[in-house]
Structures are given as C-alpha cells and as structure tokens.
Design a protein that fits this description.
single chain, alpha/beta, 2 domains, 20% strand, Rossmann fold
C-alpha cells in the first residue's frame, strides 16, 4: 500500500492526535490527513468531512484507491453539522481563517463536550481566535508554531473546560500564545525577530512623513513593537 506523505503542518496536527481516538477531520479537502492517521495506526476510524462536493469526491477517490473505505467515512457537512454527538474523540480543523473556525465551533457547540480534543490551525485572525477560545472556556493544552513552505503556522490543541478560563495577562500572550512564549518556542522567536525588523523599517519610513495619518500609523507600529518586546522578554527569563 502506498503511504501518503503530509506537509509539515499537517504532520504536526497528526502528531497531536491521541492514539486510538476516532477523528473527525473538518474541511478534509483531499483526505490526506485521515489517510495518514489510519495508515500510521494513530486512528482506527476517521470521519472525513467537507462542505464542498469536489474535494470530497477527490478524497473518496484517494481513499478508494488505498482500500481504506472501511476505516474512513466520507461525509458532506457544513462544519460539524453532520457529526453526531459523541461520535468522535478528536476534531481537527485546519486551513481556515480564525473567524471561520470560531464560527464552526460556535455553530456546532452542542457536539463538543469536555471529552473531545480539538486540534486547530487558524491561518489568520489568530489573536482574535485565541480570545474566542478563552472567552468560551477552551483550555489550550498544547500549541506549536512551525514554518512550512516559507510560511508561519500555528497549531493549537485545546479542550472545553468547565472552569473559568485563565485571564490573559498581557497583549503578547493573546497575540503570540502564552503556551508558545512560556515554552520558548524557537519558531516563534524567529517570527518575533522578523516582525520586529519589519516594523522598525516601516516606522523609519513613516517618521519621514509629516501628517495626521502618519502619527496614527506610528502609534499602531509602536503598539506592535511593544508587544514584540514583551514577547521576546520571555526568552530572556
């Protein structure tokens, strides 16, 4: 049987899945993650779900070619709509913006219990997404940041918690992730240094302008630089 190969990002997602769990992969696209999970004995049963018929047909073809139909279900679904309660132990959602992932979680919150682990990879609005998780009592149990194809990606593993979520202590934690900062994630440090250089260069150019708009932009840049400095301070502890 031909073994499927994953991108570095999806491989990180796969490695966060608890071995033996039933997995629901939301937005499965061509089904590569479900196939990998089954082929590598991480999961015995995966539900591959997508809102679009085109990718699902491609996923079905890939699964059929590898004779994995008995272990991977294909299901047309808008988010978690067609997932039964307690049907999966793990839910993965990758390759979408933070707002869309938050919308999927909110629409399907009746399907999510404290027993389910969520492995999520928001591609944008990450700070707003972390805020959503905290406000809705999701506890981040693990987080990773990596570079794949020259792009930075964040992978968040979290669970619904009955207790009140921990309050954010500063803007840096919200923007860059408390877990990543406290664990001194090397990729995050690389990202922060890159962002710092970029903002300092922009600020120098804006300094040469003399307008009300430039003053507002300088305030915005200075805020970003303060957050970056706060983030980098974790690496000095």
């Amino acid at each position: 049987m031909e073994l499927v190969k994953l991108s570095k990002r999806l491989l990180t997602v796969a490695n966060m899945v608890t071995k033996g769990n039933v997995v629901a992969d939301i937005g499965t696209d061509h089904g590569y993650l479900p196939i990998y999970l089954v082929q590598n004995n991480i999961s015995d049963h995966v539900i591959a779900m997508d809102v679009n018929k085109g990718p699902l047909n491609k996923a079905f073809h890939n699964i059929e070619q590898l004779h994995l139909e008995s272990k991977i279900d294909i299901r047309l679904s808008d988010g978690l709509d067609n997932l039964e309660k307690n049907e999966a132990n793990t839910v993965t959602i990758c390759g979408m913006g933070g707002k869309l992932i938050a919308k999927i979680l909110e629409s399907g919150k009746d399907k999510i219990s404290q027993d389910i682990e969520l492995i999520l990879s928001p591609q944008s609005e990450i700070h707003l997404f972390r805020e959503y998780l905290l406000l809705n009592k999701y506890r981040i149990v693990k987080e990773d940041m990596l570079i794949d194809d020259s792009k930075f990606y964040v992978i968040i593993k979290c669970k619904l918690d009955a207790v009140e979520s921990e309050a954010i202590q500063n803007d840096a934690c919200l923007k860059y992730g408390k877990y990543l900062l406290e664990h001194k994630n090397n990729t995050l440090k690389e990202y922060l240094i890159k962002e710092q250089k970029g903002y300092l260069k922009i600020r120098k150019n804006v300094d040469d302008c003399n307008s009300e708009l430039a003053e507002q932009r300088i305030k915005e840049i200075d805020y970003e630089l303060r957050c970056i400095e706060e983030g980098l301070s974790y690496y000095e502890m």
